Amino acid sequence: MRSVRCICSPFMEDKQIREKFAIGSLKEYQSTKDLVSKSDFKPLLIHPDFEDYLFQMISYTRYNNEQSEGVKEKIESIVDMIKKEVEK
Q1: Residues 52 and 84 in one domain
Q2: What angle do CA 39, 53, 72 make, to 5 degrees?
């Protein structure tokens, strides 16, 4: 699993962006990759509640996706109704 920092770093290498968001001098580091130190995720994996949190996240994601599909279908049906009314 990639961190947000790893995904966003290539897009944030522009000097103007770094100047806008950086605290301190730009001479202290060469890229945004140096701004945040890498964290050790191994203690998280052995945490007794990790499995529960992971299961909740997966469950919530599935539930949210199902809800989104329902909203999408409802919006599509409303758009179809509007199109029918406009055609009259």
Answers
A1: yes
A2: 110
Q: Domain check: are 52 and 80 in the same one?
A: yes
Question: How many domains in the chain?
Answer: 2
For residues 30 and 5, membership in a common domain is answered with: yes
Instruction: Give residue 84's pLDDT.
Output: 93
The pTM for the full model equals: 0.41
pLDDT confidence tier of residue 1, bands split at 50, 70 and 90: very low
Residue whose token pair is 């730009």: 26
Amino acid in position 45: L
Q: Are residues 7 and 32 in the same domain?
A: yes
pLDDT at 16 over 90: no
50 to each of 22, 58, 68, 78, how far by Cα in Å?
Answer: 33, 12, 27, 42
Give the residue-averaged pLDDT of 29-44. Answer: 71
Pick the closest to residue 81 from 24, 17, 73, 13 (CA basis).
73
